[in-house]
């Protein structure tokens, strides 16, 4: 049997080296000798086992103390019966070493479990036309994913611990060598996490997260429109492994109004009047988003004529400057006339002159000239 080298010599450190110096030395050698970096190299594999065995002993204060006292003497030391690499428990201690060190170099489960920001949540909120114009405070119930309070996000039953996946040795990947190429695929045993949970948390079922409904207050500013998105910071899903939570986005949907429509920041409204009101002129009351307004309809108002009520539109969501309300007049032609009404209209028509219908006269003159 080949003589075992001194553990300090294996790691290339002095006998009074500090814990951090020992760890640094092991990191360097492990990176250099790891089998994933040296596929098929038996010599590198044996050296990797040797430096790992040395580190497992020298990184443990009790084992290091006994090693300094007894060395490799199997007959007298408490390490009796150990057989090289396997004798020092390539289990719990090495698992901790592996997770701590190789995650930095090989993309193991620990690296993939680095702190990352939680996902954003999108919530669609329906509001009325007037609420969009005036602004409104709403309280909504949002389904959030939060860290499980029983296992603190580990997914493991309290008192139990996950173990390193034996199939991928904690890397989360299975590497296959094809000539000059090394192809990595996700480990099917652990799903790419690098660890196996045998005792799942009873609260989250091993997921590490649970869902809850949370009441969130939303301040909808005046001037929003369908499609406007409001962001509430840190009200999204919980972060991964200590990362910050995501944000909550509120997407606005403005319901249609019975009377009003919106064009940019202007409010459009159609108001019907009779042909007599249009001919003689009148005053009418029209609705606005702020209440009622009186407007004057001058004599001879035509169908489709528009009147502007300044400052009665939507506020601009950025500048707060308000648009206008545009009132479109619809001259309603009477229907279901009685015989007396028809007779009066015929009499009225007989009294009409070209002066009373200038557009009518102009139109037919153009037609005659055209043909």
Essential attributes:
Helix Hairpins, 371 residues, single chain, 29% helix, three-stranded mixed β-sheet
Describe the overall structure.
The protein is of the alpha+beta class and 371 residues long. It folds into 3 domains: 7-101, DnaJ domain (Helix Hairpins); 121-254, Heat shock protein DnaJ, cysteine-rich domain (Chaperone, DNAj Protein, Chain A), CATH 2.10.230; 260-370, Urease metallochaperone UreE, N-terminal domain (HSP40/DNAj peptide-binding domain, Sandwich). The protein is 29% helix and 26% strand. It has helices at residues 7-11, 19-33, 42-58, 61-70, 84-87, 92-101, 103-106, 109-112, 129-134, 275-280, 339-350, 358-370, and strands spanning 121-127, 136-147, 163-164, 173-178, 181-186, 195-196, 209-220, 229-232, 248-254, 260-263, 266-274, 282-288, 291-297, 306-309, 325-332. The strands form 6 sheets. The protein has a 4-stranded mixed β-sheet. A 3-stranded mixed β-sheet has the order 1-9-8. The protein has a two-stranded antiparallel ribbon with strand order 2-7. A hairpin with a 2-residue loop joins strand 12 and strand 13 (291-297). Helix 2 packs antiparallel against helix 3. The longest helix is centred in the first third of the chain and has 17 residues, at 42-58.
